[in-house]
Specification:
CATH class: Mainly Alpha
Helix content: 55-70%
Number of domains: 1
CATH superfamily: Ribonucleotide Reductase, subunit A
Radius of gyration: 21 Å
Largest sheet: none
Distance between the termini: 56 Å
Shape: globular
Length: 329
Amino acid sequence: MALKNIRLEVMQTVEKKIDSYIDQYLIPVDEIWQPTDLLPNFQKENYMDEVTQLREEAKELGYDFWIVLVGDMVTEEALPTYESWLMDMEGVDQHGRNGWSKWIRHWTGEENRHGDTLNKYLYLSGRVNMKEVEKTTQHLINDGFEVGTGRDPYRNFIYTSFQELATNVSHNRVGKIAKKKGNKMLARMCNIIAGDEMRHHLAYREFVKTIFEYDASEMMIAFQDMMQKKIIMPAQNLRQSGGKMASAFDDFSNAAQRLGVYTTFDYIDILEKLNAHWEISKISGLTDEAEKARDYLLKLPSRMTRIAERIKIPQDANHFKWVEANGVV
């Protein structure tokens, strides 16, 4: 009970700065981009020229690319799961609309545009079976996800700090591949979405850094606990129609690794970046348990690197109902 009370006190303390965090890391609705800024404008007379260009550029992208892009889009479209999860954290008053619920709603408003944009792009591209994709999205929302945080804000903010940067890496890499293939429209979409994810990462990273100032030992233990469990991707339960829960995730992940969009080494790099930014090697006044947690976190990147160097990624692409083998539905 005492630990719970301390967490609530810390959350209430950080909450006092929430308006400044919103001003610093989020963008007002009337100033931020919207999906229609990046997609063909059907109110223009030449809209079909833009659609034709989109479809022609899409022909240059390979099978693994479409699997990864669909997986990224579906992950973004499962936003209702993520909002309800964050709204359930200790310290969040979604009915009284306190500062934390305000942050979550504003964050959700920005995130909502990502899936919307990529969904419309995939639909217009004509390269994927949208009905199968839509079934996957509905399954992912139905299945939900369990990331090992419970209602603990410390563990939740560790997760979001990590995951937002992972999403930034993924969208950024997809954008680079699209640009290399001459797909300027998709490259721009992915780069702009990646920019949003980076801002969100910086915000959650700052929440954790602030909590370290008030409750360092418990924050350190929470960090260790999340890394021991491993940061589970939001699409962990990915499935296709007719498949069991989580049956498609490994194949999607392998496609991402083959493309170099998101790899085990990226996971390790993110951990190292968080260790460095939070300066966990310099934090003083820790309990014995927290000292052991810090030691674990500092040694973990090199341990994981040794394991990652031995992992072999399957080179054969598995069949997805989303995309035919030649990339054309």
